Amino acid sequence: MASDPRLARLAPQPTTSVQPPPPPPPPVPIEPSPVVQVDGTAEPTDLDNLTGPQGNSSFKLKFCTVCASNNNRSMEAHSRLATAPDPYPVISFGTGSLVRLPGPSISQPNVYNFNTSSYNQMYEELFEQDQRLYKHNGVLNMLDRNRHLKWGPERFQDWVAGLPRLDHKAKGDKGASGTEGGLVDIIITCEERCWDAVVDNLLDRGAPLSRPVHVFNIDIRDNNEEALVGGKAILELADKLNMAALAERLDQGVNGWDSGHGQARSSFDDRVPDILAEWQEKWPGLPALWTMSWL
C-alpha cells in the first residue's frame, strides 16, 4: 500500500541523546625550583612564604642584637626575638674588650672574657660569692635568663660573617635555627658607642661577602627595667621590618635577595627609613639611628 510522503514528515522522529564532551584534564602543577642562597641553603619560594606556623610566613629576617657585654640589653632583645610566638633567627654579641658585671662597688666590677666564659659559670661564681647582693641587684636573675638562652657572651669583633655556627645550634642556643650560615640581615645595637663600634668594624672588614646589612641603634639605658621596655620595642621593629621584607619578596620574587641586587631587596631597602620613622613615632623615648652597611 502506498503512503503519502507528506505524512511521513509529520510522524514523530526517534530522538538520540547526545553526551556532552568530557572536561579537559586539570593542568599539571609546576613545582618552583629552589633558589640557593649564599650560605648554601635553599631559599624559600613564594609558595613556601604563604604557609608557616600559626598561619604566618615561614620566611624570617635574621637578626643580630648587640650591647657592651652581651648580658643585659642585647640578651633581653635576643630573648624577645627568639621566644616570640613566631620566633626569629637571632644571634647576639658585645662590643667591649671584656665582659663587665656589677660587683661589690663601682670600682670593683666582676670581669670575664668573651667567648670562653659561660653564663652558667658566671652565675655559679657570683652565687657563691654573695647570693644576697647579686640577687638583690638583679644580676643573678639576668644570668639565669641568659644561661637558658645561649652558652655564653660573644664579642662582635671576633664574629666572622659567613662562618657556619652549627655548634651554637648543637649547644641549644635559642634563636640558632636559621643562623647556621653565620649571616644576618639586621643588626640592632642598644647604645650609640656600640653602634659606632659595629659600623667601624664592618667598614674595617671591607665587605668580603658584599652582602647588605641594616644597622640600627636603639638607645636603651643599661638597667633591667629599661632593657625590658627596649626588648619589647625591638621586637615590634623586627615585626614591621619582616612584614615589609615578606611583602616585597612576594611582589617582586626572591631572586637576588641575598646579593642585594634583586628588585625585592632594593625595594625593601628603600622602605626601611620610613618603617623606622613610623616606629619612632610610637617609641619617642628610645632614640634611634640607622645606616646601611655590608658584610
Largest sheet: number of strands, sense, barrel closure: 5 strands, mixed
Proportion of helical residues: 25-40%
Which strand order spans the largest sheet, edge to edge or round the barrel? Answer: 4-3-7-8-9
End-to-end distance, in Å?
105 Å
Q: What low-confidence regions span 5 or more consecutive residues with pLDDT below 50? A: 29-56
Percent of residues in beta strands? 5-15%
Summed up, the helix count is: 9
Broad structural category? alpha/beta
Q: Give the overall silhouette.
A: globular
Radius of gyration: 29 Å
Question: Could you give the count of β-strands?
Answer: 9
The H-and-E topology, N to C, reads as HEEHEHEEEHHHEHEHHE
* Mean pLDDT reading: 86
Describe this structure in words.
Helix content is 39%, strand content 13%. It has helices at 5-10, 46-49, 73-82, 119-136, 139-147, 166-170, 192-205, 224-252, 263-282, and strands at residues 35-36, 42-43, 63-67, 90-94, 99-101, 110-112, 186-189, 212-218, 288-294. The strands form 3 sheets. It has a 5-stranded mixed beta sheet with strand order 4-3-7-8-9, with helices on both faces. The protein has a two-stranded antiparallel sheet with strand order 1-2. Mean pLDDT is 86; it is low at 29-56. The chain is an alpha/beta fold and 295 residues long.
